[in-house]
């Protein structure tokens, strides 16, 4: 782990101590600097859940990723900085209220003298600050009100504005436990990651998302959508909003390639 390179990716100086204030700042900066994206599924890239491969992608190539990648590497950084951080599996609630499969999501739990804290930089819209797992009352966050409730088998349910988000296991897991589900998520026609294309991150005023040629910006609760007219405009949006220079573009499901030279590897802005 090249701590300084990772912190530079986040725009953060090396912290003096692994305390809660620093954890809060690291989570905020990670969410702002590293997008949640599933481009690899649509670029024909394998997702390799090994620390060196994740570091090369997220730090070296300045890309983003999805839960297993983002939380997997961030947990490694936190441990390198002196935090007691572990990965935990979660089942995501579907729109109809039923639970998805086991290991559907990976999140981080940080244990400290002040208790256990849920840290998640890989769930799209979620808390920008750590959530105390033992809290009884709702916890206010820039992205909404979060509530932690007891669930069967010692698990906990995490709710955002009254809506269940996922059920978190309390036992830690190694990153390797998520490899089979990560493969399914990135290859199965039934996975929503193969059915949709997204690159998204929070901003100071809301959120910005690029889905194929559709650029969506939410500013102070007002949503605005723009259909980008050309591959060049899409590349520019990736560079301006997410810091990524794409020599080829991911192909949205059901569409033909947007660019020539689709066999060229993508590079990232350094």
Automatic annotation (TrEMBL):
SUPFAM superfamilies: Cysteine proteinases. Belongs to the arylamine N-acetyltransferase family. This is Arylamine N-acetyltransferase. It comes from Amycolatopsis plumensis. The lineage of its organism: Bacteria, Bacillati, Actinomycetota, Actinomycetes, Pseudonocardiales.
């Amino acid at each position: 782990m090249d701590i300084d390179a990772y912190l530079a990716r986040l725009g953060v100086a090396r912290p003096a101590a692994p305390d809660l204030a620093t954890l809060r700042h690291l989570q905020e900066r990670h969410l702002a600097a590293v997008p949640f994206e599933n481009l690899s599924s649509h670029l024909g890239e394998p997702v390799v859940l090994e620390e060196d491969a994740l570091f090369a992608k997220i730090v070296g190539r300045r890309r983003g990723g999805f839960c297993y990648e983002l939380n997997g590497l961030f947990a490694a950084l936190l441990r390198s900085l002196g935090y007691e951080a572990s990965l935990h599996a979660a089942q995501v609630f579907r729109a109809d209220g039923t639970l998805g499969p086991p290991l559907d999501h990976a999140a981080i739990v940080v244990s400290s003298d002040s208790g256990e804290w849920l840290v998640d930089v890989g769930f799209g819209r979620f808390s920008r600050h750590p959530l105390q797992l033992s809290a009884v009352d709702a916890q206010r966050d820039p992205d909404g009100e979060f509530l932690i409730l007891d669930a069967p088998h010692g698990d906990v349910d995490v709710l955002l504005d009254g809506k269940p988000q996922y059920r978190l296991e309390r036992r830690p897991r190694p990153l390797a436990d998520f490899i089979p589900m990560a493969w399914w998520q990135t290859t199965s026609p039934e996975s929503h990651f193969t059915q949709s294309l997204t690159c998204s991150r929070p901003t100071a005023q809301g959120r910005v998302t690029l889905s194929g040629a559709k650029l969506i910006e939410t500013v102070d609760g007002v949503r605005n959508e723009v259909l980008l007219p050309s591959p060049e405009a899409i590349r520019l949006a990736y560079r301006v909003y997410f810091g990524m220079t794409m020599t080829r573009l991911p192909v949205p499901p059901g569409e033909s390639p947007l660019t020539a030279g689709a066999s060229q590897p993508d590079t990232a802005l350094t």
